Amino acid sequence: MDTSTADPATVLDTLDRRLVCALQVDGRAESGRLAEVLGVSVRTVTRRLARMRQAGLLTVVRMPDAEFGAVGALLLRVRVLRGKVDTVAHALAARPDVPFVDVMLGGGEVSAVVLAGEGARDRLLHGQLPATGSVLESTAHVVLHAFADAGQWRAGYLDAAEAAALRPPPPSTPPPVTDALDQLLLARLGEDARLPHAALAAAVGAPETTVRRRLHRLAAGGLLRTHATVDPRLLGMAVDANLWIDVPPGRLAEVGEALAAHPQVHGVFATSGPSNLLATVFCPDHGGLYRFTTGTLGPLGVTRAETAVVGRAVKRAGVLLSAPGGRPRPA
């Protein structure tokens, strides 16, 4: 399937969308479990998932816990010379410590999430970006608290009972101290969270029984959270936007929690900088974004909101979505 020419609104039918939503709930759910909950055959599930994955429409990866992964991260905004946006966006996307990169509508700004340690962060902010002639200005905001992130967003094609039937049990232990084998397993799941136990065992050179035991321990500690990476247009959401919001400090937690519960919101973070809250939202169209701004933000007492519409997602949850020049990534 050629996703560069297909109409995004017609590529996935309702069952495809329900399968994507099921993997949003549990990205490692086995085909039999998915089939039982969705009321279809295992063969249908297997065939549909294989088609979407082979076409490059769907990738499921492991994500760190929102609080552990996001707090202290940098939300980077880079103003770029015309004609150089792809160069800067893909240079950032090539970094393993940058899991999210977007080109904003208009082509003059690149937005990125940076998880670098202090040394790499300072080299990027104070050395590499200023030394790049294509960069006009960069600003960095620190995530102070994560109310919700992309791994918690649900597109809404499952009912409450179906979602509950698929939801993994909550973590039962604190996050465990990980060793080299655990890190190898997590790294492979960060590339493909649907790898079966046998494939993981072969990849890391460990017995399958050991891999099963390790994954059970990692899951119990909350380290096997997954993210189903898919173009939101395939789920009926044509507009993606970042809202930089000013909220009275005394209401920051209340507003953040309210936005985190909203079905269109796929990320809410308290931040440093001029705005103290960032909300990322999916809307069916620009009218939907207007209604979200007036009908959702207005009653929450938001004093100011800067709306930045995403023109193109380059990298999401560590998955490269497009090649330089804006072309879809080859499947």
UniProtKB/TrEMBL annotation:
Which Pfam families does UniProt cross-reference here? AsnC_trans_reg (PF01037), HTH_24 (PF13412), HTH_AsnC-type (PF13404)
Q: Which positions fall inside the HTH asnC-type domain?
A: 179-238
* UniProt keywords, alphabetically: DNA-binding, Transcription, Transcription regulation
* Highest taxon of source: Bacteria
For this UniProt entry, which residues form the secretion signal? none
Q: What PROSITE patterns does its record include?
A: HTH_ASNC_2
Q: Which InterPro entries match?
A: AsnC-type_HTH_dom (IPR000485), Dimeric_a/b-barrel (IPR011008), Tscrpt_reg_AsnC-like (IPR019888), Tscrpt_reg_AsnC/Lrp_C (IPR019887), WH-like_DNA-bd_sf (IPR036388), WH_DNA-bd_sf (IPR036390)
Q: Which SUPFAM superfamilies match?
A: Dimeric alpha+beta barrel, Winged helix' DNA-binding domain
Coiled-coil boundaries: none
The answer, when asked if Lipoprotein is one of the entry's keywords, is no
Gene Ontology cellular component annotations, sorted alphabetically: cytosol
| Gene3D superfamilies hit by this protein | 3.30.70.920, Winged helix-like DNA-binding domain superfamily/Winged helix DNA-binding domain (1.10.10.10)
Instruction: Mention one GO biological process in which this protein takes part, according to its record.
Output: response to amino acid
According to UniProt, the name of this protein is AsnC family transcriptional regulator
